[in-house]
What does this fold into?
Amino acid sequence: MGICKFVSVILIFTLFCLPISIYSLSSTELSEIPTNFLNYAQKPELAKWMVDVRRKIHENPELGFEEFETSKLIREELDEMGIVYKHPIAVTGVIGYVGSGEPPFVALRADMDALPLQEMVEWDYKSKIPGKMHACGHDAHVAMLLGAARILQNHRQELKGTVALFFQPAEEGAGGSKKMIEAGALQNIDAIFALHVTARIRAGSVSTRPGPILAGCGMFEAVISGKGGHAAIPQHTIDPILAASNVVLSLQQLVSREADPLDSQVVTVAKFHGGGAFNVIPDSVTIGGTFRALSKESLVNLMHRIEQVIVAQAAVNRCNATVDFFEDDLYSVTYNNEVLHQHFINVAGDMLGAERVQDMKTIMGSEDFSFFSEQIPGYFFFLGMKNESLRKFETAHSPYFTINEGVLSYGAALHASLATRYLLEFEALSHLSKRNVHDEL
Ligand SMILES: [Zn+2]
Ligand SMILES: [Zn+2]
It folds into this structure.
């Protein structure tokens, strides 16, 4: 046996018989990390612990920037693991740090907030708070990131840098990620990853794509004012209901007649309030809705045209209109860095097999992860939950939404593997991905 062969046998022995040593690994050895982490995450004690954590959070759902108990539970678990953290970041946010404490830094993000929705699922761990529910899976996201924290902490000596664990408040519309960025959360962070559960694909599968994965999004609300009066004497009134109805129809022509058919966009009027009696024409009508696009240019253009159409179309019917765009709540396009996409394909492929890493189409939904990924290289993917032999899993934001708790181990292991491999392959990845930072929005 030559000296080289002897050394490699010793190295392989170290890899498989001791806690995984990940310095100076060959590509075969790197490819073993995801499966080793998955085996670790699927051990009954870790899997059960994640389920328990998730159920505790599920029972006590908290809305954006009110996640005080969730944040406390996270900090208690991090304390228990001996992981240092920063708190508070953006009111209830927590950032834990695992590894050398030195650069490079890679972040993993989980959102913590629930929705203002009454849970309709009858089970032992049903929401105890009337009108609030974890119906988007953020309770599972927190449990999976805590699971990843356990895996990483168990291998902390071998991390070639530092993993930052982002527990983020207020994803559902209040822009918690923006507040974390304002608080300096991204300082020194080289790349960031996040996942979202989905009932659309099979458990044990993931879906994703490079480039735009979720749309940029804005909201609008317009007050269309006329002159109220008796419904039987319309000539003495200026009818805002007719004006608002024409506005709704005109808005539909923005996408169908003005947008490039190959550049996906959405304008939806989802709110129409006016009048309260059969025989009274009201003074004003309020309408509101959302608009979506896959580039900053298209999003800004839609915003300008929505205002012009509302004001001008209202004027046709002698009404005045004011439009509010809640510009602080404008969401950017969620853009997946191309180099991190290749990294994800490699890591997830090693863990799940290439056939379980699926391409997906861009979705016109939005995520405030976009604010992270427009600042630094970022990557977002979906983790499947579908399993017909268990039950039908409803889509997010349904009052009947449930989690396939069997997939928590996959999420934890993917998080831990993506970060660990990123740090190991940092030289090559950071060099390429920085050149590939998206400057959208
Ligand atoms: Zn949601
Ligand atoms: Zn969500």
About this structure: Residues 25-214+333-435 form a domain with the Aminopeptidase fold (CATH 3.40.630.10). Residues 1-22 have pLDDT under 50 and may be disordered.
